[in-house]
């Protein structure tokens, strides 16, 4: 696995979304060329790539072409076809490999893997059919959260259930697309995340803990540093490092956590790639999560994760975009990132704003002032 892919080489990216775009931008600043495999035309990553392969993610010819033009291959999202991932692991330089993808693509496997490392997760039960509902409900209790094992993000593929009847209704719908997992409801006080990176050469680094605020199951804001005790912050980082090492992850891993009132932490989900809650690192850290990911998969030394200043990142959704575009002259004290998506849809992430300041509260105030002048609703 030990290898250095030097600048000037071509990095192949599976997926043409905004994470791929920001990954590509960081890589090109370092002197790399970019190839992207993406089925849609004029994708966010495709707009900045040197080579665009328009093919489905499970297209064998497309994967072969990507391997031919790339010196190393990575991805911007984890829902990659299993056969494609296995082929790339065997036939190309694909340092992240198929193993971690196979775990994180499937919520039940993911929870079992985390639990096997001795790290707390919410109590859970697998639901493979309607026949297992009552037994699972008895073991987990209510309220609970029913989730599909595969797919789903930003609240999709999930149902909060309060009784057996709601559980049956949810299972009848969700089991059509995937087996499910029933999780106990965790009465959390805060949602946190940690971005951790492990190089193909074994070096690790961890970014400051982010405190995340969600609306309608979509990340609304990230506040860094998180407003938590230092002991909790260090524990969150230790958990992230234990997972990235224990699962033999290469590249960037986002670890999402629930914090209870007493400071106890439960891991909620993993994402083996750069993450929405790590966008703050572009302006606020010595090395961004995207540059760090490129360093990791290329075998370069990892950069410093030092936080320059407190920071708040807020997502721009489709319903916000027009207000932002009409009032860009007021964006003098925050950084604007737009992703180049062709169509603005309600609840679709179109970009983000980042404000830095001497405190998280002051950074929040900067974004709140934008709302007062009707830049954001």
From TrEMBL:
One annotated Gene Ontology cellular component of this protein: cytosol
Keyword vocabulary terms for this entry: ATP-binding, Ligase, Nucleotide-binding, Purine biosynthesis
PROSITE patterns in the record: ATP_GRASP
GO biological-process terms attached to the record: 'de novo' IMP biosynthetic process
Pfam families per record: ATP-grasp, PurK_C, RS_preATP-grasp-like
GO molecular function terms listed in the Swiss-Prot or TrEMBL record: 5-(carboxyamino)imidazole ribonucleotide synthase activity; ATP binding; metal ion binding; phosphoribosylaminoimidazole carboxylase activity
Catalytic activity reported: 5-amino-1-(5-phospho-beta-D-ribosyl)imidazole + hydrogencarbonate + ATP = 5-carboxyamino-1-(5-phospho-D-ribosyl)imidazole + ADP + phosphate + 2 H(+)
Pathway: Purine metabolism; IMP biosynthesis via de novo pathway; 5-amino-1-(5-phospho-D-ribosyl)imidazole-4-carboxylate from 5-amino-1-(5-phospho-D-ribosyl)imidazole (N5-CAIR route): step 1/2
The ATP-grasp domain, residue ranges: 111-298
InterPro entries listed in its UniProt record: ATP-grasp, ATP-grasp_carboxylate-amine, ATP_grasp_subdomain_1, PreATP-grasp_dom_sf, PurK, PurK_C, PurT/PurK_preATP-grasp, Rudment_hybrid_motif
Keyword match DNA repair: no
Binding site for ATP: 107, 147, 152-158, 183-186, 191, 214, 268-269
Function per UniProt: Catalyzes the ATP-dependent conversion of 5-aminoimidazole ribonucleotide (AIR) and HCO(3)- to N5-carboxyaminoimidazole ribonucleotide (N5-CAIR).
NCBIfam families named among the record's database cross-references: PRK06019.1-1 (NF004675), PRK06019.1-2 (NF004676), PRK06019.1-5 (NF004679), purK (TIGR01161)
Record family assignment: Belongs to the PurK/PurT family.
Assembly with partners or alone: Homodimer.
Protein's UniProt name: N5-carboxyaminoimidazole ribonucleotide synthase
Organism expressing this protein natively: Halalkalibacter okhensis
């Amino acid at each position: 696995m030990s290898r250095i892919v030097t600048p000037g080489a071509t990095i192949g990216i599976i997926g043409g979304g905004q994470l791929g775009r920001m990954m590509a931008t960081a890589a090109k600043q370092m002197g790399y060329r970019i190839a992207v495999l993406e089925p849609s035309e004029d994708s966010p990553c495709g707009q900045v790539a040197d080579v665009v392969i328009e093919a489905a993610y499970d297209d064998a010819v497309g994967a072969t072409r990507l391997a031919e033009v790339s010196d190393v291959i990575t991805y911007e999202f984890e829902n990659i076809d299993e056969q494609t991932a296995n082929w790339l692991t065997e036939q190309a330089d694909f340092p992240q490999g198929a193993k971690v993808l196979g775990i994180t693509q499937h919520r039940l496997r993911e929870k079992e893997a985390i639990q096997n490392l001795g790290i707390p997760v919410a109590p859970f039960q697998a639901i493979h059919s309607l026949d297992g509902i009552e037994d699972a409900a008895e073991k987990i209790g209510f309220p609970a959260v029913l989730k599909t094992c595969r797919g789903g993000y930003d609240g999709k593929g999930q149902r909060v259930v309060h009784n057996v009847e709601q559980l049956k209704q949810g299972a009848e719908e969700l089991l059509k697309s995937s087996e499910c997992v029933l999780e106990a409801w965790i009465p959390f006080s805060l949602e946190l995340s940690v971005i951790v990176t492990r190089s193909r050469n074994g070096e690790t680094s961890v970014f400051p803990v982010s405190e995340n605020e969600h609306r309608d199951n979509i990340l609304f804001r990230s506040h860094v540093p998180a407003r938590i005790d230092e002991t909790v912050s260090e524990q969150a980082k230790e958990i992230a490092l234990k997972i990235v090492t224990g699962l033999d992850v290469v590249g960037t891993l986002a670890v999402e956590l629930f914090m209870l009132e007493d400071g106890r932490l439960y891991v909620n989900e993993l994402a083996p790639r750069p993450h929405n809650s790590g966008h703050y690192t572009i302006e606020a850290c010595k090395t961004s999560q995207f540059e760090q990911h490129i360093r990791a998969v290329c075998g370069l030394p990892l950069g410093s994760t030092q936080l320059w200043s407190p920071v708040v990142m807020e997502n721009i959704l489709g319903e916000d975009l027009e207000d932002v575009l009409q009032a860009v002259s007021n964006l003098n004290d925050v950084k604007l990132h737009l992703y180049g998506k062709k169509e603005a849809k309600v609840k679709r992430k179109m970009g983000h704003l980042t404000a830095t300041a001497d405190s998280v509260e002051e950074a929040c105030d900067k974004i709140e002032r934008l709302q007062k002048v009707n830049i954001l609703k």
